[in-house]
Amino acid sequence: GSGNYHLIVTGKAAHAGRAFHEGANAVAGAAMIAARLHALNGQREGVTVNVAKISGGGALNVVADNAVVRFNVRVPDAQASAWISETVQQIAAEPPFPGLTLDLHGGMTRAPKPMDASQTALFEAVRDTGALLGQTLAWKPSGGVCEGNNLHAAGLPNIDTLGVLGGDIHSDQEFAWPASFVERAQLSALILCKIASGEIDALKLKSLRLETM
Length: 213
Prior knowledge:
Layout: E1 2-10, H1 26-38, E2 48-56, E3 66-74, H2 78-92, E4 101-110, H3 117-132, H4 147-153, E5 166-167, E6 175-176, H5 180-197, H6 202-211
Antiparallel strand pairs: 1-3, 1-4, 2-3, 5-6
């Protein structure tokens, strides 16, 4: 699962020289909050917190009275989702020093998609379909999310990441293997044919999912 947040930090502007101690530096507070968030990594298995952006402040001779911390969280299951949500709320309730106010926005946007009975049955059907084409398919957990998470939460089992093969995702070295375009198109087409013919029983898979909701 995944969540997106932004935390607005409001301080007090003041002259950086004449009245520095009368101000409350929102950018400094945002940096301290970002460090608190980053420190959550490693505290619970499968949970990651990515501080993606800090913005704020203005003129260099003014104590900054505004800042925003934007961050993303990833969780493996519902229990971890509840834990990170509560922990983020606690951080947002505790300004790092006097003179700051914190305003938290956002939340979990993608529910976790565990490998339950319906997902396992669907994957096995897809794996067997791939074998007919000479393709070896394997499953492993990842921190990625997509619309499939929301579909699963609504009661519809699904398989994502059926696209082309490649690597180094979301980096300047990201690449795709052109040769995989054809084989993945063949796989998708055969899966759809099996669903249309009833060989892959979509209604049975959905019933399996609903039993666990």
